[in-house]
What we know:
37% of the residues are buried. The N terminus and C terminus are likely disordered. It contains 2 helices and 28 strands. The protein is 7% helix and 31% strand. It is elongated and about 65 Å long. The strands form 4 sheets. Strands 1, 2, 4, 7, 10, 13, 14, 16, 17, 19, 21, 23 and 26 form a 13-stranded mixed beta sheet that branches. A 10-stranded parallel beta sheet has the order 3-6-9-12-15-18-20-22-25-28, with no helix packed on it. With 312 residues, the protein is mostly beta strands. It holds the Pfam family HemolysinCabind.
Amino acid sequence: xxxxxxxxxxxxxxxxxxxxxxxxxxxxxxxxxxxxxxxxxxxxxxxxxxxxxxxxxxxxxxxxxxxxxxxxxxxxxxxxxxxxxxxxxxxxxxxxxxxxxxxxxxxxxxxxxxxxxxxxxxxxxxxxxxxxxxxxxxxxxxxxxxxxxxxxxxxxxxxxxxxxxxxxxxxxxxxxxxxxxxxxxxxxxxxxxxxxxxxxxxxxxxxxxxxxxxxxxxxxxxxxxxxxxxxxxxxxxxxxxxxxxxxxxxxxxxxxxxxxxxxxxxxxxxxxxxxxxxxxxxxxxxxxxxxxxxxxxxxxxxxxxxxxxxxx
Length: 312
């Protein structure tokens, strides 16, 4: 058998390894996505969302219909808007809400979302019209351009969140904020701190917070209406020891709150917790006998003294 021609011999050793690496690199470039070859091309937002059991196409919009929808996202949302549309919708986002918006649209919607994470823009959850139920893990923003905001909007909404924090930017915009807007809302939040804000809006609202200003500062502002402000389940809300402010607004408001610092402020609360009863020993009314004392013998019951016999 004739020897293998030099042109067809397989290289061995270091030469073979170099050839193998070069071939792998060429193959990876051949199958690279189009944006790798064009760094300036716009990136299409990716997500894993389903609308009524049907996978939503990739893009910056996930939309429901005019009826009752079930929208489920099993991934982070980044630069994506989820819109429930009309009807009573169920929307659940199991990933992070990064520079994105989740909105219920018209109807009595239920929205559940994890953490709001504004990186390059704002992150938002809105109920829009209707009596909505909204649950969000944490609401942490910073400045007007990086706000984390939960809006109940129109209707009697029930909003539950974890901690609320983040200073607003110019004109008091952005930051970390939870607001009921219009309607008689029930708002239950975790600790409000680091300039986080909870706003009730109009009508009679109920606001419960786990704490207010324990490290830096925060604000609870109920607005117009006969509002109720307290800790979880009607317990006493501690304001401080750092900066914190409760402003109940216009109306006859009930505030179950206490201040533990001169740097805190409690305003417009018509009904405050009653002072604890005094532990001093009760005084015995005049003429009354102390408990356990023997009753005095009446004068009429005293034996008459023996008459004095005359001398002699």
